[in-house]
Design goal:
This protein is of the alpha+beta class. Helix content is 40%, strand content 18%. Helix 1 (64-72) crosses helix 7, helix 9 (276-288) crosses helix 15 (406-416) and helix 11 crosses helix 15.
Length: 461
Amino acid sequence: MDTIDRTRPPQPGPPKDVAFPDYFETVLPNGMKLIVYERHEFPTVTVSLVARGGTACDGATPGLASMTSELLTKGAGGRDAVRLAEDIESLGGSLAAGAGWDSSNAGVTILSRHFGEAMDILADVVRRPTFPADELDAAREKRIAAIMQRKANPSTLALNRFHQAVYGKHPYASPQEGTEDSIRALESDAMAAFHHTIFQPANTFLIAVGDTDPAWMTDMCTRLYGDWSNDVPVPDAVPAPAMNEGIAVHVVDRPSAVQSSIVVGHVGIDRRNPDYIPVTVMNTLFGGYFGARLNMNLREQKGYTYGAHSRFDGRMAAGPFSAGADVRNDVTDAAIEEILKEMQRLRDEDVSTEELANVQRYITGSFPLQIETPLHVAQRIVSIEMFQLGKTYYNTYNSRVMAVTPDDIRRVARTYLHPDNARIVAAGRGSLLQNTLARFGTVDVFHADGHPLPTHDIKGD
């Protein structure tokens, strides 16, 4: 008779695919898409109307998309900002709007018994915003203060400079929140024109999650949005960015800094790339979780930082690959060297099956938690719709992660990791970094406001 060795934990079984919840979708005659994910456990509904077009459509006015979205809830239809807030709060709900790189949105969360009234408010916000001058003045003042405050944050300075170093004149180079100059110059008519271009029915989709049903939502959206028309051209697609060539080193000078915020990377991949899943596995192994190579090297072995990380930011066009950490001034160059070495190592050496299996178990084990709540599912549906991934994309996610081989890791590392074409950015003490980082290439130094800083203006200790 076989006996069980209770001194050893049982081996986990192979990860299984997780069935992604089904949902209803239809398209109104004017081209607006409606998506409904029913969940009746709680008497609440969350609705978000998403428009294709965000910060990447700012053009010559950085911050245009984010400020436009912020002002949507500051006056719409016959309501001013105070009335909007009072009306939605009296229903026990919340109203919000925002913008990302590739999309803008407005949404509401409400008790289902007040859903109809909340949908009326949301329709006003989306279709009839007023962009009042006094609210713009207040928002402008608040935004400029926030931008100035961020200039004291080395991580923000490093990331802003990194995006500019990687993307040059591409739309992804501009800070999403804008600049002091662009926000000062922003006027209501520019926001109204941007809104009119982005928020058109054929350029939007509405997703409702929670205690509602498709028939009710279809009737509601037909009433509120059926007469909405498409009457101006939508923005052009985000252009593909040029791939970086050669190493460039940028320093953001912070004379009193005791540590440096470093970012190393280059143009990465877009979200629709067929290699997105093997790249995700490769990046997780490289710097995407606590046990990743980058963190084990810079934190556990060298003691340079409390944490190191990396990311491929998949967007409509190729988003950035970035790896970074906050390190002591005196080890800035050594930390950068280790990041570059780890990038090259992935290109040159096969990963072991054991290391890969650990990463695959981490990814597949955490995936069910990422679709655990209705709002988590809604976020995934937004990605499916934005990037046209296909309704069943996540049904085989785990099996595709588990199918990644060491050969796949090396192939995508060689294709999408380019240490010889990296942009190296450090926000820290310029008088030190301009010398220590010179071994990587010519060092350009910048002020916190983004302007180039001549060598003779860099302050020493």
